[in-house]
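QUALITY CONTROL LOG
STEP: pairwise intake check
CHECKER ROLE: data steward
CRITERIA: each record must contain a sequence immediately followed by its structure tokens, with no blank fields

ENTRY 1 OF 2
RESULT FIELD BELOW
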Amino acid sequence: MSERRRRSDGATLVTGASSGIGRELARLAAADGSDVVLVARREGRLDDLAAELASDHDVAATVLPVDLGAPGAAEAVATALDEHDVEVDRLVNNAGVSRAGRFDETPLDADRETLRVNVAALMALTKLFARPMIDRGEGEILNVASIAGEAPHPEMPVYAASKAYVVSLSRALARQFAPLGVDVTVLSPGWTDTATGRRMAEATDADVGEWMDPETVARAGYDGLLAGDTVVIPGASNRRYVRDVHAARASELD
């Protein structure tokens, strides 16, 4: 664990902070004056981002190079921050694994890793950091899902199912935690112009009508969190897609 200067007030913890949407969310938090905890596997990229944020915004940036797919990863993050007296008042669960392919052909170990990172680690981090927020009577949680979580996706079934979990959990916790002073928001982007997004589009041979840039997606999620929104879906075309999915689902019950 490497640490830049730390303040006494609460920090924003961002997983998957080394690139893409996670990196932009960390930048937004730091620009608002929040100390940040940066979690991802690529330590070099985290160190570079930490140096940038500390220099540009005069905040403390703590680097935790952690593989969230490893057993006990969430507990290791919580223990490290407790030992260094870093209090987290905003949790951003952004880390995720994206894979595509026919269900019977994708490797079992790869699908298990998707669930460990996208579901198990997110759930564990939320449980570990929500309790202190509730005890303090304030806090914020932003979970990054996907519009793929709004409907079964035949080209990425395990990924879509994992994001459906994130959407459902976030909606439930938003209701459960609101009276306790903790806001929960789920950010569900569509196709976003990141390295991961480009790989997924290629793997699924997707006809991407419109790419969104990670800065715009991150800003929408960050602003939605601060506004107390439960669901944020950036982009008009993405919102139309989700509305159509919900309408089609409702018609199935008629």
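ENTRY 2 OF 2
RESULT FIELD BELOW
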Amino acid sequence: MAPFELAQPKTLDDAIALLDEDARPLSGGTALMLMMKAGVLRPRRLVSLAGLGLNRIESQNSLRIGAMATLRQLETHEAVKRGWPVLTRALRTLSNVRVRNVATVGGALAHADPHMDLPPLLAALGARVTIRGRGGERTLPVEDLYAGYLENTLGKSEIIAHVEVPALGKKRAAYLKCTTRTADDWPAVGVAVALGDEERIFVSAATDRPTRLADASAIESLNIEGDLHGSAAYKRQLLKVYLKRAIDEARNAGH
């Protein structure tokens, strides 16, 4: 791994000022370090986001998740279990508890790997992400954070500050994934469904980013990505099966 400088700013504004073409923000580091060891990324500076107060989880009418909150913190939060149990259920099969103890919500979103579990589920729930950068602050739907495989829409000086998930109310939601090995493995396909006044369906792993479906028939027109987890034809068939299962689970198991 190439040598690098580790910066530890005290404020979010200081962190943003340290980011440029040759720098990367460091949250949990579970994916970033692997990519650096493999030589895929060679930043000359890592900017630590620890200690900036971005790890809070707050719940009132909506759920506000700080970008530095760990996946385990979100999984075990009592307000999340009561108001957004679909998140708790999904997180229990996201990788393993050792990773969830370190990986952060912001890092999981910014990484832009289409096999991640949280992006399609948060998108289905209508979550919005707030981003801070030198140009100020902007907020966008979670699905608009992605441009393609491992490509996000963040500027070089931008950092995810927090994610806001609206109250479920009477909506019913479910997330299902099919893995080719153990239950906590990368999914071959993932399907997130939220049913209410507006039906929101997002698929992942089979596509290069979380992709919204208008309805079940839209699977036929999807550009499916084959990989080590299955061919495009196999994944298309999986999506048909898992979409039906996810809709049934959302209808029958509550939210």
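INTAKE CHECK: passed for both entries
DESCRIPTIVE NOTE, ENTRY 2: Residues 172-252 form a domain with the Enolase-like; domain 1 fold (CATH 3.30.390.50).
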